[in-house]
Amino acid sequence: MSAPAADAQLNDPVLSVDKVSVRFETREGPVVAVDDVSFGVRQGEFLSVIGPSGCGKSTLFNVIGGLLTQHQGTVSVAGETIDGPHKSIGMVFQEESTFPWRTVTDNVAFPLELVGMAKAERVERARHFIKLVGLDGFDNRHPGELSGGMRQRVSLARTLASKPKILLMDEPFAALDEQTRLLLGDKVLQIQQEIQQTTLLITHNITEAVQMSDRILVMTYRPGRVKRIVDIDLPRPRTSEIVSSEAFGRYVAQIWADLREEASRGMREAEDQVLHHQGAES
Amino acid sequence: MADTGRLRSTAVGAPGWVSPVTLLRVVIILTFLAVWEFLSHSGWLYRDVVPSLVRIAAALVDLLTHGEYYFNLGVTAAEIGLALAIGGSLGIVVGIVLGANRFLTKAYEPYLYYLGPTPKIIFFPIIIMWCGVGPESKVALGALSCFFPLALSVAAGMRQIDKVLIRVGKSFRANSWQMVMKIYLPAMRHPLINGVRLGFGFALIGTLLAETKLSNMGIGFLIINAYSTFDMPRMYAMLIVLFVLSIGANALIGRLGGIESIKRR
Amino acid sequence: MNGGAGAAGTTVAKGSSQAGGRHRDDRLHKALPTLVGIASVIGFFLVAELLIQFGVLNRFIIPPPSQILGSFGRVITEEHVFSRFLLTATECLTAGVMITVIGVAVGVAMHRFKLFQQACETWAAALASAPMVLCYPLFLVIFGRSAWTMIIMGFVSGLPPVILKTIEGMAGIRKVLINVGRSFNLTRSQQFWKIQFPAALPSIFIGVRLGLIFALINIVGTEFLINFGGLGQLIEDLAERYDLPGTYAAVCFVILVSILFFMALEKAERWLIRAD
Q: Hey, what CATH topology would domain C72-275 get?
């Protein structure tokens, strides 16, 4: 674990997460969601954080995005410590997050509107990113008229339009069906390679992570720690066709071996908790 | 959405000729008018309680051709508009503040919730002492009446906003003003418009009741004046115009929300 | 913050033994907003009292709260508050029974005869938004200065929401419940009493509650306007006598009564729906 972390330091990471821990107070007592997590994301790199449900991935997402500030340790972007949402970080959420009352163009132009960009300019830039995600022709539609996959692409374009140094995504395809998910993964990969977008993807899907990443950070089940960082040496540019290659299969198997342990521990603990609860109630 | 679907299906049901729905409506209206006219000539009811349709129509024409009526209509409309502007904007602000803060909701919303439906007209004697007997007191009662429904529906609307939209706004570093104008208000446009509709209804009733109680101008004054001189046809004529206007205004406010939701789909 | 979180992290094992203490904290934490609410209401009256005592506010416009509180007893004993309250309550109750029986019946009928519903539902909705209370002179002519004017006033203003919500409830029944009924070969009346009506009940209750609220507003309002009968007249009476503290006390009394009324209504609704 320490070797790649040191490596990242050498390469001067754009985003560095340093000894971050998060604890929550719950009714059952305090829960350590994220425990002493450190890693860096280099310029132009695609890094995925993978882990079983309940490993604190989403907590980490909120901490890096600056939406959750009650944590120990520091997160910094290009040397600046984060203590709230930072302009260099663009977030794409897991949930449906387009504004139903705005057209596609107005949705994508939203971050530009906030910083007071002139209308003509922001429409032009919005159009560029709408085209980039492959939605040209839908500029004046409302999200209600689009499919789930298209809406998620609108969210992606909206975040890209703010030109973040780092694109931060929390399971952006989780709510989509398998085929849409693969195709959309292709799209993200293509865009990322085209504009050299530094990206941090949070996911629980191994195929998705291997298909897109340069490195994958595997997290343990509660408390969420860094279990291993795996370098993915697959040729670029990639598409979803890589899924059928032998090397791909090896990576998937390797990560699943790591993850299975954590996931089954998670499942056991969840079951225990249910039993415990029933015992306490009766 | 379901509403528009239903409306459309009834409209589509009219193949060239008249649809059964329209036919039934016409039949009901004609029956009602016929019974009315019959009652007016039967002499069963006290004189003029049910005046002949002809006399009501004449009163209506008489009403609409005199400038005096329009002056009073203008007074009432201005009072209601001002009441809605004052009470409504206060209600929206209070609703946003309450809806955004769980602590304040728990501390103060019960008071709003239970004060909301109490009849506001009972405050009128107090309001007269504060604001005098002129139009100001009518505006004050109207504003008081529409404050509660608006504050309550905006607070409820705030809580219904999809949390992820708020996180999106924060992640793009929107300031408080931008959050309110670009996220909160548009995200709760449906409960908001519903609240404005309710608020309008309450402001209307509050203002008009205050006028009937004590005033020397406005529609409420004209109506109670017609009653005290027992000019029933004129009273009916004014009630008809008033109902048509208020139902129309209500539909118009609703339409503001309706168009938007159709465009969205 | 960080220190606190760190300390919490090390006391995981002790968590269960501290549960008792945390519960007490929880309770205080839960009651705090309510306490703040009550405190600010009391604070508001205290500030008003002080401002009036020091002459910042004119005591001939706003009597000090202490004086209002003092005249409460006088108003209750001298002004036959109890019989007035009974009169208003009876009017409300009568109107309430009328809107429930007639409103639900009309709603069910409109749901059954679709054509009738298509023709008239929008009318009912329009009437709900029209200022029916302005018709009070009309009922005054028909019923004279009697309780029936108030009851009918409450009835016409409370009827539309009951009709609309009954239709909504009947139309909103899940299709599968109807099919369950069919699968048991229920007769038409069994289908109605065992499936449709109970399923529509929550919506009907909302309608009845709305109807009762409108009825109460209009009944008290009309009492005040025509200076007749119950609680509404009480305020008008005292105001005409320029009995300022009395007027304020009466207003407070009516507010209290209506708050209790709505609370009872809420409790009843919850109880009835749960018992279902």
A: MetI-like fold (1.10.3720)
